[in-house]
Specification:
By secondary structure, this protein is an alpha+beta fold. It is built from 14 helices and five strands. A five-stranded mixed sheet has the order 1-2-3-5-4. Strand 1, helix 12 and strand 2 form a beta-alpha-beta unit. Helix 3 packs antiparallel against helix 4. The N and C termini lie far apart (90 Å).
């Protein structure tokens, strides 16, 4: 057992706790100067707790203090910092025990005036801390920074470290309480030495393994990204080849018509090709506009009618101002109304020289929605006559369609239908509202 004066023992215990905190601050790259007063105060509090008769219990209170300090700081690396706190406490405590033992054995055992020579123990502990601090700043801290970036929440590593920390405290406390530490000092020092070596090797191996795993994952991700890019490039290349092949065939066909002096056929083929080239873009416009309609049945119905408009080459405009996942009234009745009105618009514009169709489904509030379908007309249309039952015209049969809509919404408070003609455009509006 190392015998020191009361004041020397107090200073040694205080300096050991404070030096462990300093090494921890260096490990996590925390500014030492800003928290030095708190650290000094809590180091004094920890060693002054009267209930602590076993020195190793000080480490438990030390780790708790560091954890609470991180909580107050709102540190984003709380788990990793807690691991480093326990790791630092065990390693530094074991080092201090080794240094104190050999300082006593080699320098103090034969000295009688411990009031003077006893200061070698806290001095050697300080020199040990200084050496470890240099190693931490120069070698360990850069790797710790990398580890914190790679492992944001290493919960499993925290559990292992916590178990080893509590096991260390438990074994040390038993040996101190039963006096085993004095009788088997050499064996205990060997245990401390093994703890330091195993912990250091394990920590270094863990960092190397983590870094290697991260590098392998980066290689895999890079390789997968290259494969994805290669597939995309291959698809684009095949698409270009197909377009080039189609273009070549089209040019050959036009060349044949020109040689045969069939200018109209050549012009018609060319216009058809140009129209097909823009059709795909129109499909995308329809999909983008209708994507906000989340009611599966209505979405598919409107999409089918819209695709028919694109196929017939009719200029159009589609608008849905907000996501719609539910409409008031009957979904079947709403689908019938939309289907009739869109069919009427398609049939009415099919043979027009300048056709146009507009579709809009507008959400004014969760209870009020507005459906607008408009189409161009070339001949005069009496809308009041068209709304009468079984009225028909030879082109489009609009009267029958509109009269059916009138019958569907009649006596149903969920629907309000109206139609008007203005500037060669017939506009049909249906408000769908909750009662």
């Amino acid at each position: 057992m190392i015998k020191l004066t009361i004041f020397q023992a107090f200073i040694n215990s205080f300096s050991n706790i404070f030096e462990i905190i300093i090494i921890y601050r260096l490990m996590i790259s925390s500014p030492v100067g800003k928290s030095i007063l708190h650290d000094i105060l809590w180091s004094l509090i920890i060693i002054s707790i009267p209930l602590i008769t076993i020195g190793s219990i000080n480490l438990v209170f030390l780790v708790i203090y560091l954890f609470l300090f991180d909580q107050i700081r709102s540190n984003k690396n709380k788990v990793m910092d807690s691991i480093l706190a326990m790791f630092t406490a065990v390693i530094m405590s074991s080092l201090f025990d080794l240094v104190d033992h050999y300082t006593h054995t080699l320098l103090l055992q034969k000295k009688s005036d411990l009031s003077l020579w006893g200061w070698l123990i806290p001095l050697n502990d300080f020199l040990t801390t200084l050496l470890i601090g240099i190693l931490v700043v120069k070698i360990i801290r850069p790797r710790i920074s990398w580890l914190m970036t790679s492992l944001s929440r290493p919960t499993w590593l925290w559990r292992i470290t916590a178990i080893l920390f509590m096991l260390y405290i438990w074994l040390t406390a038993i040996m101190e309480k039963n006096g085993i530490a004095n009788r088997y000092a050499s064996m205990l020092l060997i245990v401390y030495f093994i703890i330091i070596i195993v912990s250091a090797i394990g920590f270094i191996d863990f960092m190397r393994t983590s870094k290697r795993a991260q590098q392998q994952q980066q290689i895999i991700d890079k390789y997968q990204a290259q494969i994805t890019n290669a597939n995309q490039m291959n698809q684009q290349y095949n698409e270009i080849r197909r377009e080039r092949h189609d273009l070549r065939n089209m040019l050959l066909s036009i060349q044949g018509y020109i040689r045969d002096h069939k200018d109209k056929e050549a012009e018609k083929l060319l216009s058809t090709f140009l129209q097909n080239d823009t059709t795909e873009k129109h499909y995308d416009e329809v999909d983008l506009a209708l994507d906000k309609i989340k009611i599966s049945g209505l979405h598919n119905l409107i999409k089918e009618k819209a695709y028919k408009i694109v196929e017939k080459g009719i200029p159009f405009s589609f608008e849905v101002n907000a996501e719609i996942d539910k409409l008031p009234g009957s979904e079947i009745k709403t689908a019938r109304i939309i289907g009739i009105l869109m069919d009427n618009a398609i049939e009415a514009t099919f043979k027009q020289t300048k056709p146009y169709i507009q579709f809009a489904l507008l959400k004014h509030s969760p209870k009020v929605y507005e459906l607008v379908i408009a189409n161009s007309i070339e001949q005069k249309l009496n809308i009041n006559t068209a709304l009468k039952f079984e009225h028909s015209t030879k082109e489009g049969h609009q009267g029958i369609g509109l009269s059916n809509v009138t019958q569907l919404v009649e006596n149903d408070d969920h629907y309000s239908f109206s139609a008007e003609v203005k500037d060669k455009v017939v506009m049909m509006t249906c408000f769908i509202q909750r009662k």
